[in-house]
Amino acid sequence: MILLLPMFGGVFAYVVDAPPLYLLAKAWPVLTAPLALFAAWRLNPPWQPLLLAACAWLLGVTPFVSVTQLGNDAFGALASTAKIWSLTGALGAAASLWLIRPTPRDLTWAVVVLAAITFGFLIGAWLFAPDALFQQGIEDTKVFLSDVERGRRINAPMMFGILTLFLINRSFWQRPKVWKALLILGGLVAMVVMYKQRAQIGGTVVGLGLGAMLSLRRWQGPAMMATAAVVIAAAVPVVLWLGQDAVDSLGGSLSMRQIEAEHALAFLNDQPWRWIVGVGSATRVGDVTLGDIVGTPFFFPSDLGWLGVVFEYGVIGAGLMLALHLLAIRMAWEAAQRGQVVGAAVLDYAIFLLVVSPVVSVVLSPGELATVLALSWWLVRTPPAPSGAASGSAP
Fold it and tell me: Where would you find the membrane-spanning parts of this chain (predicted)?
């Protein structure tokens, strides 16, 4: 599972810094296609019909729309679907889980080991990576980044690091220990100081807060209402005090997103039915780029959250992806009710994916959603923990 989970999660899908892993991640959906076919034929998980409908639209219809709307060539249109391929991994991951049959404790240890590797790399790269790595172009690195607002930062794939923070958080509220609180705090500090991805850090804090409230059992309702009241009460004066300074503090990334959003809305409004079916996508290997079509030097739908999804795949595609995320939360909720801490952590991560989706496009790394679907399905099939036990708890 330590080897398989990162591949199905698409952890290396953008890590061009490690060419072998990058190429393997791109080829993984094709290599595991027999597993996906096996799962569709034998296992038939409850989310399979919706998943197949989403894949049919995103992988089948959208390339055709891209050819007709953007003037894209067939090869470029098909190549533009590569980022969605990992969504099909939900079936392959389900088949792998069925064949290997890991226990909740096995999955817990696999996730914890992957988190140790993740945070170990994050801290090690921050301390020892030479300055030359941060001066590379975006074609050469997706990990060692630098910009004016945030300075140097390590854009490490954090899926299993964040998932483990949720797991330790759930375990803490079952059996409080000081070292668990210190691990969570240390992980957050490392993300703030070294990772610096604002949406993911904010989503992690929200996930930790929700996990804490959901662990309080009969105090869930009062805790949620009290938290909401505190957040609202704190947000009003902060917004009034910061005013325009809050916008300015976000730097060029917000300005760029505003420009891209304006161009996207203008292009969609030019032919309103584009809102329904989208306009498709393009890649650098095709004859055209989205920047050429929209009329701006830089245009990346992945910067625009759900607006970017609607731009590429229409309201139909966005609706299918939203339905998959909501189904993942429902399935993970069922897994969490079986008394397994790892199931509760998967629920928190499913919520995390939806929380960050207004900023982090749901089609940018759909392997994470696919993995959540597969893990939730398997954990629901796993016998519930004995009364009073904490099967699959964090070590």
Answer: 23-43, 50-70, 82-100, 107-129, 154-173, 178-195, 201-216, 223-243, 304-329, 341-364
